[in-house]
Design a protein that fits this description.
Blueprint (H helix, E strand, L loop, with lengths): L6 H14 L5 H16 L8 H8 L7 H18 L29 H12 L8 H15 L3 H5 L6 E2 L4 E4 L8 E4 L2 H17 L19 H15 L14 H16 L4 H12 L4 H5 L6 H18 L2
Antiparallel strand pairs: 1-2, 2-3
Length: 316
């Protein structure tokens, strides 16, 4: 017996279920709603089929191959879930339209000099004696010293910054997970200084957002990105043919890689410590943290050397 449930309703049931698990599904939710509307508009009746999924996924004729494959992957996940309730559901074969991702970009690992140059350039932003330069120096410095995601830093409120116990509470983490982030005393001192500048510039501001603009509004991602892009141009950071220019997110990569390098150089048991690093960074899976082992040549060289030494000892 064929299902008579409209595809738009099936999509909504799926999205409600996934969001209860903590997934936000902003882009995927919008795309799947379009899929449901497409299916209902053409008069599709019955379970989800591979033919229906492929027709919708390849609908934007000017879309790239990867974009088509990503759209099909979204329907594939929906079909996987729907098959639990309707066994007649067809689940598209994985990779039917090719890979649905671009190769993961090689991160730029900032040197100490580069981080110092970025903070110096941020301190020279206008207006003179305004809050803006202090906002960006503190923001970029916090990212470099804690490995926070930019969204997490911009989501901080005043009550999330504990200056007495050197502690941040991240409430806007990925998958809505909260966590505590210990701070180095030097980071706490920088945050305390920023709060003072913030209070001097906006003494009567009722907003609880930690990072504010010159006009006493919460600092947003787009303006942060545009400011970083301008600073990057000023510093002449253009990237290369093999790797794009440095990104804000690379400050997070740099933090993780330096921590791993430090542990390897200390001959510490990295595999015993990496769970703590994953928790500190807010990774849902430890495998996301292990990716950093192959992210940069320095780490890859140490891993290769250790493997070679271990093989020699075992007589391999």
């Amino acid at each position: 017996m064929k299902s008579k449930t409209p595809i738009t309703e099936i999509v909504q049931q799926y999205l409600d279920y996934r969001r209860q698990l903590g997934y936000q599904l902003k882009i995927e939710g919008e795309e799947l709603r379009r899929f449901g509307q497409f299916a209902d508009k053409i008069g599709h009746h019955g379970p989800i089929t591979t033919d229906l999924a492929v027709k919708w996924a390849t609908l934007p004729t000017k879309g790239s191959r990867v974009y088509h494959a990503r759209r099909l992957d979204m329907v594939r996940r929906l079909a996987n879930h729907r098959a639990l309730f309707d066994p007649q559901t067809e689940i598209p074969v994985k990779g039917l339209l090719g890979p649905s991702y671009h190769p993961r970009p090689t991160p730029h690992i900032y040197t100490d000099d580069e981080i110092a140059a970025l903070l110096k350039a941020a301190s020279e932003l206008g207006p003179q004696n305004g809050l803006r330069p202090h906002t960006f120096v503190t923001l970029f410095g916090l990212l470099a010293s804690t490995g926070l995601r930019i969204s997490e830093a911009l989501g901080l409120n005043l009550q999330d910054v504990d200056l007495e116990d050197d502690l941040l509470t991240v409430r806007a983490g990925k998958f809505k997970k909260s966590r505590l982030v210990p701070l180095h005393p030097s980071s706490t001192a920088a945050l305390r200084s920023y709060i003072q500048h913030r209070g001097n510039r906006h003494p009567h501001c009722a907003l609880t957002s930690f990072f504010l603009t010159e006009h006493a509004t919460p600092q947003k991602y787009h303006s942060t990105f545009m400011t970083f892009k301008a600073l990057r141009e000023k510093l002449g950071w253009h990237g290369s043919d093999l790797k794009g220019p440095p990104r804000i997110h690379d400050l997070r990569h740099t933090f993780a890689v330096r921590r791993l390098l430090c542990w390897y150089q200390q001959n510490a048991d990295v595999h015993a410590k990496i769970v703590a690093l994953a928790t500190y960074l807010g990774h849902v899976k430890v495998s996301d943290t292990y990716w950093y082992l192959t992210a940069v040549p320095e780490l890859l060289a140490i891993v290769a050397e250790r493997f070679e030494n271990a093989s020699r000892l075992k007589g391999l």
